[in-house]
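debug: dumping io for the single-chain case to check the tokenizer round-trip. Nothing else runs in this session.
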Amino acid sequence: MATGPRSKAVGASVDSARDNVSMANPGATAAETVLQELRSALTTGHLLPGQQLIQEDLASDLGVSRVPIRESLKILEGEGQVTYHPNRGYFVTELSADDLIELYRIREILEAEALAKAVVEVSDADIADIEAILSKVNEAAKSGDVAVLTETNRAFHFAIIELSGMNRLSRLIRQLWDASDIYRTVYFRDPVNRERIHSEHQEIMDALKSRDAQALIRAQNNHREHAVQALTTVISR
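debug: decoded output
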């Protein structure tokens, strides 16, 4: 939220979730549900880079106390999605080309290890399941639904990564993805990028089917590099 009057776009985003805090995930704590709603607002672009997050307003919007708001913001700060400034409060992290390049370079190193192991472990049933997820990615990209695209895109990539069976590695990679969600949202808003990922994902899928580790790593690296190039251009404007 911006300083001063409440942002209408953000208000609409969190207001729509107000009644869902206690019902969306019956087993979830208030902090878990608030975190989910804030992630959604970041992913859909209702919370923009540089925007101030006023805890009192968020608590009022979501019908909760400031405690789960504060807990959620600390988690997002740890992921790099929000930044805390003493005496000023929390802000959505500004886009940074250096930050983006560092995040994606670390991902490149870690994901290569996971993908090399994944091709050894993948079964025909796994491939069928991943192709079903990819169909949902393509549908979301075609419709321009950035929220669903972000969710299904992540599901597609992690369905492959987690085939490695390396749980600690998968958790590290997931943290990097969490930290770069805001960049991914910006990337998916461009219809050119949404169209591009169709062929790039197919290359990844074909390499997985062939159980070709080098081809899979190369396809993923190309996919990642195209995103970095496109985003760097946006950030530098």
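debug: round-trip ok. Strands lie at 52-53, 82-85, 89-92.
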